[in-house]
Amino acid sequence: RVVRKVARRIFEELGFSCSEAEDGRQALDVCVAEMPQVILLDWNMPVMNGIEFLRHLRAAAGGSAPKVVFCTTENEINFIQEAISAGADEY
């Protein structure tokens, strides 16, 4: 919650509009309703983790369009490779 709040404040101060979600399922619902241009994504989320979210997002109508950036503490090469293979633009 704190990280979301800080990120939101930074982006809104830069003039961006933001939406946020507490878990992966809620995030996917928000994206399907109105596909964003950019998504900041954590690997470790309740209900649906980041990689599951990303796979569902990329399979959804319009889901190939957003730039997806993983912002996570998971920094092992296997996590990075899996995220890029699943469609992340940056890690």
Protein model, in words:
With 91 residues, this protein is mostly helical. It is built from 4 helices and 2 strands. Strands 1-2 form a two-stranded parallel sheet. The two termini are 20 Å apart.
Number of E strands: 2
The profile of the biggest β sheet is: 2 strands, parallel
Radius of gyration (CA) equals: 12 Å
Q: Indicate the proportion of strand residues.
A: 5-15%
How many separate helices?
4
Overall structural class, as computed from helix and strand content, comes to mainly alpha
Low-confidence stretches: none
Quaternary class: single chain
- Mean pLDDT, to the nearest integer, reads 93
Main-sheet strand order equals 1-2
* Head-to-tail CA distance between termini: 20 Å
Q: What is the ordering of alpha helices and beta strands?
A: HHEHEH
Estimate the global geometry from the Cα principal axes. Answer: globular
- Binned, the helix content reads 40-55%
Short description:
This protein has 91 residues and is mainly alpha-helical.
List keywords for this structure.
single chain; 91 residues; mainly alpha; two-stranded parallel ribbon; 4 helices; 2 strands; globular
Please give the structural blueprint.
Layout: H1 2-13, H2 24-33, E1 38-41, H3 50-59, E2 67-70, H4 77-86
Helix pairs in contact: 2-3
